[in-house]
Structure formats: structure tokens, C-alpha cells
Amino acid sequence: MVKRGVATFTLDSGQCPPWLFQRMVKLGREISEVLIDEYGPDEFIQRIADPVWFQSLGTVLAFDWNASGLTTILTAALKEAIRGDEQNLGIFICGGKGKTSKKTPDEILQWGYRLNLPKAQADQLVSNSKMSAKVDSALVQDGYQLYHHSFFFSRSGSWAVVQQGMNTENATARRYHWFDDSQKLDFVNDPHKAISSVSVHENVLNMASKKSEKNRDLSQELIESGYKTLMKDIQILRQHSGAVSRMLTLKTGDEQLTLLQLDNAEFSHHALEMEDFSKSKYLDRILQKVAYEKPESYEKLLATQGVGPKTIRALSLVGEVIYGAKPSYEDPARYSFAHGGKDATPFPVDTKTYDETIEILGNALRKTRINPIDKDKALKRLQTTSNI
């Protein structure tokens, strides 16, 4: 099974026809009941986090396999499909598209109250939801703005996140999958669960990569050094924002400081141009806040209210240019549904996962109580998916 990545699709416009959505809800209810009855709610949650399984389920329910709308419509259909029967099935779906995504924490807490979950468990689920969104908006700076966030969880605490962002410049959407059943997920160190992509970009600042560990550690040290010490480094970059050459040698008072060797192209890899924060009073206030609070870990730094992409980029830039701790600029996007990997590019198709997904969904379809004509159409769609 593919370990991690991100899914990218063409950006849709318009709405799903009511007749199609109603059929997706009906079929989604039948398939969900069969799968949960056979494999249990925790296994169902885990499969939601598998992009191959998620994509195949959306296709079986009659949505275009390569459209961004599959994400939003499928999660909405599943949420509607189990409405009123969540406790019997043992799975709960919160959030959704646009303004609905903002309601995710409240919906999780409401379920926590109805299920009589310990307050600590409900609060942790809310934190997981918020942190997954924070990582994909602030640590993975790939140019996609989140507009959809759905949180799936079981009574035992297994959870999955399916969220999607849009890039209006190239008219594509990118989907991020998460899963955890151990309650020990490292949110800042390669946290994503098996995902895919049809588009990989260059020079993506990925502070959630293991390769960025030294830069993260440096960012944490900068915060712990105190506001005045941190701002000295920030001011060095601000004062010499236009002096990027093959070797940067800066003079600060009586001291001479030689910075990381880099040329203009290498320097521009960072998503933040130095001019972008050269006179940012808001950034200064946030840096002052975190320097005062001194969050005890990079994860807690990220969770601090007000810390966003610009703060993360600024700290990363100081760590890279002044101290030589280069972060990862490798896009975490990996696999392509469109190409199918038939030519082993970017790597061969994971046929085992595909075959297993098709078999499981096929068996579930045969056990559903829908009419034979609709069942046959769904099986044909599943077979079409297997040939993509």
C-alpha cells in the first residue's frame, strides 16, 4: 500500500444533480452498512483514509473518478447516508465543504456529549481535526487553499480526515488523507496517510517532511532564544533582503557573518521572499507572542493561535539562510490515477491494493439490497475503475 502523498484533481464548477446525489446516498448507505457489518467501524474509518479505496467508492457511487467534486459530494453523501443511524453503525462524520467545515469542532463535541465520551477524548478529537488542517495550510505550502474538511471517527477513537484545497491559478484541487488509531500520530513528521496525485510541483516548502527536521529544530531554538535574539536574525535578513549573491557576507556592527552559500535560484526556492515580511508588524507581534509563551515543541508552536504560513516560512528562512538548516522543498504529492503508473512512472501500480479494493467493494455491492439493475450498473462502474 502506498504510504503517503496527496491527491490532485481538476477543479469542478456547478452542483451535483439532486437525482444523482439521492442515488449516491442510497447506495452509500447500503455499502457502508455491509462493510461495517463485515469489517467493523474502525476498519471502515481506515479505508476512508486510503485514496484508492476512497476514489473507487466515489466512482462506484456514480461520480466522475477524476473530478474534484468527488471528494465533497462523496463525503456529503456518506454523511447523509448514515444520518440517524450513526450510533448503530459506530461511525461519525463531521464537517464538510466551505462554511460547514468550520462547524467540525462543534459537531465533534456534540457527538462526544451524546456518546458520553470522556472530555479528554472529545477534546483530543477536536485537536486532531484542527491540527490536520493547520499542517496542510501552514506546513505544506503547496499553493492550495483548503475549502473542504471532513472528520471521520469511531467510538473507540480511530479517526480519519479527508480535506481538499484548491489552486485557482492552475484550476486544480488537491486532496489530503489522514488516519490514526494509536492516538500517537506525529503531526509534524510525515503525517499523511497513503494518498495520490496527478500533479507534482517544484519548490514546495514542506515543513512536515522528515527532511525538514533540522530546520524545525532550529525554528524551535529560535523561539526559545527569546524575542530580542530572534529579531536580530530577522533584522539581518530584512536589512539585506536585496543582497542575495553566490556567497552572502554580512557585517553586523563589528562582527562579520558569512551566511549559507546559495545563488538566486536556490534562494527563491523558499516560498517566502524576504520582502514579503520586511515590514510586517503582524508577524512581529506573533513572533513576540510565541517567544514569550515558548511552546515546548514545534507541534505546539504550530498549534499556537495566530501562527500561520508566514510565521512558519519566516522562521524556516532564518534557519536556512543564517544557520544552514535547509528544509525540504520536495512536493509530498506522489502517485497518479491519471497515468496509472503503467510505465512505472512515477512508480509501478500497487496492483495488490487495487485488486483488494475492487474485490471488497464488489463483494459489498453484491450483498446490498438495491435493485438488480442499479447493482449491475455499479458493478460495471467498479470494473471500469479497475481498468483506469
DSSP helical segment count:
16
Termini separation comes to: 18 Å
Work out the count of structural domains. 2
Fraction of residues in helices? Answer: 40-55%
Class inferred from helices and paired strands: alpha+beta
In round numbers, the mean pLDDT is 80
Shape: elongated
Summarize the structure.
Helix 3 (51-60) crosses helix 16. A 5-stranded antiparallel sheet has the order 1-6-5-4-2, sandwiched between helices.
Notes on the protein architecture:
48% of the residues lie in helices and 13% in strands. With 388 residues, the protein is an alpha+beta fold. It folds into two domains: 249 residues, no CATH class; 112 residues, no CATH class. Strands 1-6-5-4-2 form a five-stranded antiparallel sheet, sandwiched between helices. A two-stranded antiparallel ribbon has the order 3-7. It has a two-stranded antiparallel sheet with strand order 8-9. It starts with 6 loop residues before the first strand and ends with a helix. The N terminus is likely disordered.
